[in-house]
Design a protein that fits this description.
Length: 414
């Protein structure tokens, strides 16, 4: 197995040639780890993959399969199920036969469930080193290697290993920056020779919880590596956006494994989507993140839609119709709010890049509409329709919506 880092602890050096700048992926020498999850590749230069998790009993195979199909139709590429007993491990095998997506087994506490899931065709195992004995983790590593499947080391702020949970303090998000000169621990094999307090018997008092998340994850990855497993994915989630971002930025400098990003226990859709977008958006714009889940107290279809929209918002998915529209003000002469929803629904099936502008007055309207593939700017007595930067036609107000949709349809048909 290729060794990706030293197991020693070093002082982190800001000027290291291996530290990536904003918007770049971290490169570890010439190594950019790619991991296969079924037929989905993550890491390296592959695009970030959306995943979600079923909220149904895994043993309800038909319902889980329907749910997986609905998520796939919304853009999900990796689907996770809980494996909590022998029956659910067996059900995973039945689900696999009907779902054309990689299926991940979520394992906690009992390593034997992971072994059973692997035997039943799981495409990946997700474990948390904070709630499983070390020997169980070693057995799972050997099992995963035998079956040729990766393991995600998933560390959550609410279930840190005791040695970290009892010593870590909170982090504001500014405490660990790109210019940090703190010592950080790098226990895992696929890390830079740079590095956080901890390792071995070192004093853990006073480290931030973001550092604790990273230490715990790298400890877990190192343990798996010790059993010869190199197909590893890492996640370090907090329920706080700033803490999540701090942890992933630190891991992005130290860890060469693909990073699964997201805010854990984000809450209801109203607030959880905003919190998730704040954290995941910051990371993705930094070039951090190989797969994403938006964890909501809601159905996984809602999670999938939110994750897809985050990828689109940061420019990592352009194969859709982007509808931009002006904020309404007293100058607006048309019901743009209702018309925007009409246009979004009308173009929901578009799978190629298309930029559409719906503008309500003459202030920014012509300029924004002109920068789109197609746009409309309403005025006092009618509307101007633009195509590729030029006025294509002007139409009376009463005909404007119908004519604009007709022109969009013509573009869709090309």
């Amino acid at each position: 197995m290729k060794a990706f880092c030293s197991r020693k602890v070093y002082s982190f050096r800001v000027n290291s040639k291996n530290v990536c700048r904003a918007g770049e992926r971290a490169e570890y020498g010439n190594v950019k780890k790619v991991v296969n999850i079924g037929d989905v590749k993550i890491g390296g230069e592959y695009p970030a993959a959306v995943q979600t998790m079923s909220n149904l009993p895994t043993t309800d195979v038909k319902a889980v399969v329907r749910q997986a199909h609905s998520c796939r139709d919304e853009g999900c590429r990796i689907f996770r199920v809980a494996v909590y007993d022998a029956a659910s491990a067996e059900a995973l095998g039945a689900i696999k036969k009907s779902v054309k997506m990689p299926i991940v087994a979520d394992i906690h506490f009992d390593y034997r469930l992971g072994v059973a899931a692997a035997k039943n065709g799981a495409d990946k195992l997700r474990i948390n080193p904070g709630n499983m004995p070390k020997e169980g983790l070693r057995i799972l590593a050997r099992t995963a290697k035998e079956y040729g499947i990766p393991v995600r080391v998933g560390v959550n702020g609410g279930s840190l290993e005791k040695k970290y949970a009892t010593t870590a303090r909170g982090v504001s998000g500014e405490e660990i920056s790109a210019n940090s000169g703190e010592e950080i621990s790098a226990n895992s094999g696929m890390c830079l020779e740079a590095g956080v307090k901890n390792s071995g018997n070192q004093d853990m008092r006073g480290i931030s919880r973001a550092e604790a998340l990273v230490n715990s994850a790298l400890d877990g990855a190192g343990l798996l590596e010790g059993e010869g497993l190199s197909d590893i994915v890492v996640s370090l989630k907090s329920s706080a956006a700033a803490e999540t971002v701090a942890a992933y930025r630190l891991a992005g400098r130290l860890c060469g494994y693909p990073l699964h990003i997201g805010v854990t226990e984000a809450g209801s859709p109203d607030y959880g989507i905003i919190k998730s977008a704040a954290a995941a958006g910051a990371l993705l714009l930094d070039g951090i993140g190989d797969t994403i889940r938006v964890s909501l107290t809601a159905d996984p279809v809602s999670e999938t839609r939110a994750a897809v929209k985050i990828l689109r918002a940061v420019g990592l998915d352009r194969n859709y119709a982007e509808v931009i529209a002006c904020p309404k003000c007293g100058r607006c002469v048309h019901d743009t709010e209702g018309f925007v929803r009409t246009v979004e629904n009308f173009t929901a099936d578009v799978k190629t890049p298309l930029k559409i502008a719906v503008m309500g007055c003459a202030v920014n309207g012509p300029g924004e509409a002109a920068e789109s593939d197609i746009g409309i700017a309403f005025g006092g007595s009618g509307a101007a329709i633009f195509k590729y930067g030029r006025v294509y036609k002007t139409v009376p107000t009463e005909e404007a919506e119908r004519e604009f949709l007709r022109e969009i349809e013509a573009l869709k048909m090309r």
